[in-house]
Amino acid sequence: MVVVNGAQLIVRALQNENVKVIFTLCGDDDLIYNYCEDAGIRLIDFRHEQATGHAAQGWSIATGEVGVCLVQSGPGVTDLAPSITVAYQECIPVVALATHPAMMNVEKCTVNEFDAAKMFCSFTKWSGFCYETARLPEYINMCFRIAAGGRPGPVLLNIPVDVMVKECDDRLECVQNCFYPMEQNRTLIRPHGDPDAVKRALNLLLNAKRPLIILGSGAGFANAGEEARKFVELTRIPVGTWGWGQGLVPDDHPLCFGLASVMEGAGQAMLPVADVALVVGLRYTDLFGYGHPPFFAPDVKIVQVDIFAEEIGRNRPVEIGIVGDAKAVLSQFYMQAKEILKEPRPESDWVKNMRVEKQKFEERMAQEGSSDDIPIKPQRLAKEIREFMPRDGIIILDGGDTTVWGLMYLRAYYPKHLYFSGGLYIQHLGGGVPMAIAAKAANPDKKVLVYTGDGSFLFNGKEIDTARRHDLPFVTVIHNDCQWGMVARIQRLAHGPKFYGLGSKLSSNTKYDKYAEAFDCYGELVTDPSEIKPALKRAFDSGIPAVIDVRIDPDVETILDYLWASAYNPATYERKVPEKPPEAVTPAH
User: Cα–Cα distance between 30 and 75 in angstroms, integer?
Assistant: First the structure.
């Protein structure tokens, strides 16, 4: 008989899933820690459970693997909820493990008793308990299978303490059956799309006058960059990106028009007049006008590719819907196109016009980002970061207007090297610092930068202590306008100057550079635009986590401020007959 306890079985099962790091905060979960070192699993311990969930997401984004976090029962697991909500909405695979009081004391008002499974069921793919020690490896396998399968997302496994500490015979069949190689515990085969649907969709694209491709987060999670580039370069169809799809085709690629958005950039001219659009792994949220004008023309033919069948046709009808993995389906598109075209098509006037629009946008951004004004203009800060960071640097955007400026000015040249800390889908703030910790742990040789707001930073800013203790240096740049900027500016736009800053002002006396120094990190205050790049260099050269507090002009609005201010106008909620679609953009000569 080989006796093992539940904690040993959990760690062995995680090791079998090739888990390298667990993001955690100690409590009654610490028995599991005892076996991690021998299993080669690194523990990164945080100061708040919310941050462990963000870090698990960051690890998944940085590596393509399932992220793992471990917290204790009661308040530990309730503190985890905000970050797991983001993982669910943004389809990021995370396995969250949480202890639970012993089952023998359930319903007796024991310390930290809380049914987290019920709480988490609405924002996880699965949430439940394991009640038997010998079945713990089975449940770990199941969690990874669910989190990574189909449309990815988080799961929560609650582990009662008595189940964790009890022992069983390692030779039990239900135990041994769980330790086959990972690929035998769950399928790694990517589902392809219906070949006939791909053929019909390709015919639409190749015969369109103004076709385009949009690569969303689903394409990013599928690592579909190579297939996308090959297809784009063969067909010469312009491509735009969004979310974790950014960087699949580099922003400076001659066929990439950049951000797939009508907020700013070449997308303003391209998207509303496209006649056929191949949309891969993108959901039509309100940021995309739910797929309606002005984002798309009313008569545009949509080819929608998604791994989640229920997503096809949400918010607007499709011409052709293809259910499948983005990487696999784009490979199908490329192979079929190659049989038809043999070699790359000539460039159309549509493509040439896209480049003109893209160049106009870049020139405007360069001009607006060149101001020497004090206080510093947000455009100047974003431009300085863009010019300083290396091509393969990782930038995490965290905040409201901060994220908008980042999307306008910063560029993605590699997959998952420029992304949101949470999701604009639910406007979550504060994930930047813990996600940077995970990104640095996964990419120790790359520069990692968090571009955040003064409001966003302090949600999890204390985790620079975690970064310092674990020797994971990165730089946090605080876009400090001394207010909850997006809220304050929307107040002014929607209600008038009298209400500007009502409940949304923050103190200009707060010294974030000194805050960093209190955690034995590098801190610096910047008030002159000419000092931004030198400060960035000093911060990275310090070799420790760093915070640069950059004082920003609080009165500069973004395009989203204007758009979201309309939410307070009753006319916004009146349904209207659609206007005549815009004319096609005149090709450049």
Answer: 16
